[in-house]
Amino acid sequence: MPINELRAIATFIATAELGSLRKAAEAQGLSPQAASQALAQLERHLDVRLFHRTTRVMALTDDGRRFLEEAQPGLASLQRALQNARQSKDDIAGPLRIVGPRTSFQPVVWQLLEEFCARHPGIQPDVQLEDRIGNWVEDRVDVGFRLGASAPDGVVARRLFPLQLVACAAPAYLARHGAPSSWTALGAHRCSVFRNAGTGKISPWRLQAGGEPLEIALAPDICTNDEVVELQAVLSGRCIGQLAGVTAAPYLRSGQLLPLLVGHMPDFASYFIYFGSRTSQPRRARAFIDLAVERLVENPAYLLSSAELREGERRARDIGQRGRT
Length: 325
Description:
Layout: H1 5-18, H2 21-28, H3 32-46, E1 51-53, E2 58-60, H4 62-89, E3 94-100, H5 106-119, E4 123-129, E5 143-148, E6 156-162, E7 165-169, H6 171-177, E8 192-195, E9 202-203, E10 205-209, E11 212-216, E12 222-224, H7 227-235, E13 241-244, H8 245-254, E14 258-260, E15 270-275, H9 283-296, H10 306-324
């Protein structure tokens, strides 16, 4: 029969400390028979007699005393480590490793972190944002965010909200160049394109027509791997850009940008939050996930309504027509 060394050693030490196998069994929540078997297995495993036994007394042998002196500190250290691990799992304090996409997600994750850290000052966030797709196990991730058509394999995930890719321009651009009448007219306009920081590849514009997805390669007026640079180029009136809704929403709602080609907006990806386990994750990770779900699922701050988009597109056409007359 295989020996449970940890239980056997704990039984031996408790028996030595309490002077009774029965008391040791009670202290460990074992039956006297199980405690006696554990002790006998340990002696056979070591091939050493650890106790002199009489009907009333259990006394350590010389070998037993030496083994106690060497084993006692090690078991105490191990028990402290186990207790600390259990307490850490249930404590909303300590390190919290979060990963996610850099592009378009920085303002979202910061607002979430700001609120979470205000609630739990003992949290030490370690946030890694980059557009490459990493390995959540190798990267030691507590909580991850992913932008894609579906959640990554091998993890528990919750969809947060869809990605809106909005073609938009500043009123100054529309007054000078007009608004594209259809997606086929984009080639005649000055457009920005985004270079994926994770792959180095230029991303095509993603649209749809007749329910079918389109990927359009455009000659760039400006090409960048930084969404802030692209946003500023569009805001300045230099070009038309296709921006993530979470980035563009405040400027579209303020009128600094106006949406274009609303009927051709694609529907191909969403933001997800993911984690490795529902049961064994630290309490701080569970609390962060709960807050993220509460704050982000279908949050209207990050989603433009159909009415907002249609009204903005109408204004864009009006400005474009006036600029051409």
